[in-house]
Write a structure and sequence with these properties.
137 residues; alpha/beta; Nuclear Transport Factor 2, Chain: A
């Protein structure tokens, strides 16, 4: 795996205040920010080897290698702002929705549904289902 191209300083993060009032909410916020900012190390450390990522209407990825390959392809996109509207967690499940804006005036609304490996606070993600809608003007 290549070295991370971390963009934390380049992306404005806007998050509702109540999105950080529980350990799993804090984790999902950090996890999604890491994905957007291309912190591949943090992202890959927090998923299981057999993870499945279903991007509805597009593709299903199985395992860390396929997911890493997809993230590498995103490297050319330059996000400018991540708006997190809601983070919900309970037991083995969680979700996060918001809007992601890019340098070229492209925008997408998204909702990610997560399935954790256990109900404990310190756990890994074993499944992601993503709904992504292009809302560019």
């Amino acid at each position: 795996m290549s070295q991370d191209n971390i963009r934390y300083e380049q992306v404005k993060i806007i998050c509702a205040e109540d999105c950080g009032n529980a350990p799993k909410k804090q984790f999902l916020r950090a996890f999604h920010v890491a994905l957007v900012c291309n912190d591949i190390g943090f992202f890959m450390e927090n998923i299981t080897e057999e993870i499945q990522w279903n991007v509805i209407g597009s593709h299903v990825l199985q395992g860390k290698d396929q997911i890493f390959g997809m993230i590498e392809k995103w490297n050319h996109k330059t996000p400018t702002e991540l708006v997190i509207n809601n983070i919900i967690t309970h037991g083995y499940s969680g979700s996060l929705n918001g809007i992601l804006n890019f340098e070229n005036n492209a925008s997408c609304a998204f909702c990610n549904i997560y399935r954790f490996n256990s109900s404990l606070n310190k756990t890994k993600i074993k499944e992601i289902t993503s709904f992504i809608i292009d809302i560019s003007k």
